[in-house]
Amino acid sequence: MSSAMAPPSASSAPRVAARGKVELPRRRGMSARFVACVGLLVAGAAAAQIAMRAFDLNVKKLPVPLKKPLHLADAAALRPRYELFGQQPPPPSEEMFATLGTHEFLNWRLVDREKSASDKTRLAEVVVTYHTGGHELVPHVPEECMSAGGYEMIQQPDDLPVKVPGVGAANDKFDVRVARFHAPGGQVAVDGSRDSEVAILYFFHSNGTYCTTRREVRVQLGKLNEKYSYYMKVELKFTDETSRSSASAEDSLRAAEPLLERLLPVLFAEHLQWENRDKLAGPAPASQG
After folding, report:
1. What is the pLDDT of residue 26?
2. Bridge partners of 209?
3. Are 180 and 127 contacting, i.e. CB atoms less than 8 angstroms apart?
4. Quick one: which of 19, 158, 233, 260 has the fewest CB in 10 Å?
5. 237, 146 Cβ separation under 8 angstroms
6. Which of 232, 205, 227 is nearest to 278 (CA)?
């Protein structure tokens, strides 16, 4: 019949070996290009490991434990100008610690004794967190946290300078990030303005460097010639003594300078030990996130 199946080709038909064994057709092997690519990948990985050892490069970071926990910070060191307000925030819950990703947490309400009770910079709410070890740490920022709480961001945050002598900043200046929000339920005037603006100032101190963005922090944490890593985040918000009237961004910046001039030396001297990191040994306590 014309439709009879064609005989198998010589390349696909089984062959009978000299000793009577049937040899099945060979499958096509891996291409030379594929084998070469695999070889290059293996060689590259091995070379990277050798280079990291030879040049003392570090991907996995070691922790820098604090000298003492942040919650044991000495507020008395801020006197005579600043002292703890009579009513302090409640202790953080385990759920909050889980959200923050660390147990190293400080939250103070401080009174500026040089300001009147009605001054919108009389009361400072200070929040400090500390994270150490690992190169994949992702800092939380107020833009996300405040928005989740119902606050409306007015504009993209600005990086603005503050002058703070004696804290290791070049020319005694470093930038802080200023985020502005409308509080939920604020009154809206006829011209569309609101009386509910809230300004949050924040910055990071990572591996001895001042930063304002998560990207800058990641750059510090990811430096391959440094085997240790940490970042500390400081947030400030200023209000009057009733906490009902918030300071403007401009007034907050002016109020932040004398406060940071007293607060940061306490944190650096009594808690951080970045300068002594090469003398450290052993893992960080579990509470340091």
Report:
1. 53
2. 206
3. no
4. 19
5. no
6. 227
Looking at residue 21, its pLDDT comes to 54
Q: How many angstroms separate the CA atoms of 176 and 198, rounded?
A: 16
Residues 6+ positions from 102 with CB-CB distance below 8 Å: 129, 130, 131, 287, 288, 289
Task: Check if the beta carbon of residue 241 is closer than 8 Å to that of residue 147.
Answer: no
More confident of the two residues 26 and 197: 197
CA 230/CA 122 separation, integer angstroms: 32
Q: How confident is the model at residue 4 (pLDDT cuts 50, 70, 90)?
A: very low
pLDDT score of 115 more than 60? yes
Cα–Cα dist 56/278, whole Å: 14
- CB contact at 8 A, 203 and 175: yes
The DSSP element (H or E) to which 175 belongs, if any, is: strand 173-182
How many residues comprise the chain? 289
Q: Which two tokens stand for residue 4?
A: 């009879």
CB 280 within 8 A of CB 273: yes
| CA proximity to 130, closest of 68, 210, 70, 60 | 70
Contact between 209 and 100 under an 8 Å Cβ cutoff? The reply is no
